[in-house]
Amino acid sequence: MLLLINSKRRYKVPLLLNYYQSELLEAGCDEAGRGCYAGPVFAAAVILPKKFHHPLLNDSKQLTEKQRDQLVPIIKQESIAWAVAQQSAAEIDASNILKAAIKCMHLSLDQLKPKAKFIAIDGNRFYAYKKIPYQTIIKGDGKYAHIAAASILAKTARDHWMQQLHEQYPQYGWDKNKGYGTAVHRAAIARYGLCFEHRKSFKILPPQ
After folding, report:
1. What is the DSSP letter of 1?
2. Which of 4, 51, 87, 137 could be a cystine partner for 91, CB 3.0 to 4.6 Å?
3. 5 has a pLDDT exceeding 70
4. Where are the domains of the chain?
């Protein structure tokens, strides 16, 4: 952990590792929106240069919206390859959220040019992808730069998508809750019912 100091405050920046192994071209992969009541699940895959570093780069959940948006163009410009994919609420309901999230990761990996020869995935669940070796890493988005970058691309893409859906369905407050089961969102569901973008296979909790 690196301690940075300025005139107003001290703050810690994680020293992220650049790769899990060094022999094969490695992509980091992560998803966003798995626990939401509504909207698609997104995933991203990123291949970063082995010496890439940015002082703000971290797990997307540890960053502000402004910091994430600031990092997106840097990641896209500096990466060797990047891609984002999604699965809709209907596609989630047709399979399940785990399968949909992993399919998202596969779809993002499909788009990479050049192709990854090794995959580092945030979490502990993954399905084999085209016989390419992989490693799941619990809390990998806070340990590896390429997984952190993927988490940022997936989250920002999903947040922007939910902002657009909010314009169609303003009653649910998706501009603020992004489809998560907040008290405001659950109260709106109780009042207006579910819409097309809700995940019908999820256990939608009533207001407390």
Report:
1. -
2. 87
3. no
4. 23-192
- 165-189 pLDDT, tens per residue? 999 999 999 999 999 999 999 999 9
Name the strands in the sheet holding 118-122, side by side, starting at the edge strand that comes first in the sequence.
Answer: 81-87, 41-47, 26-32, 118-122, 134-137
pLDDT digits (tens, 9 = 90+) for 60-91: 999 999 999 999 999 999 999 999 999 999 99
Alpha carbon 172 to its chain's center: 22
Q: Assess contact for 42 and 85: CB atoms under 8 A.
A: yes
Closest CA relative to residue 111, chosen from 50, 157, 61: 157
What residues have CB less than 8 Å from 2, skipping those under 6 apart? 12, 13, 14, 15
Q: How far apart are CA 12 and CA 15, in angstroms?
A: 9
The CATH number for 23-192, chosen from 3.40.630.30, 3.40.190.10, 3.40.640.10, 3.30.420.10, is 3.30.420.10
The encoded tokens of residue 5 equal 């100091």
Distance CA 9, CA 7 (A): 6
- Tokens 């990761």 belong to residue: 105
Question: For residue 196, what are its two tokens?
Answer: 């097309």
pTM of the model: 0.91
| Contact between residue 58 and residue 64 where contact means Cβ atoms under 8 Å apart | no
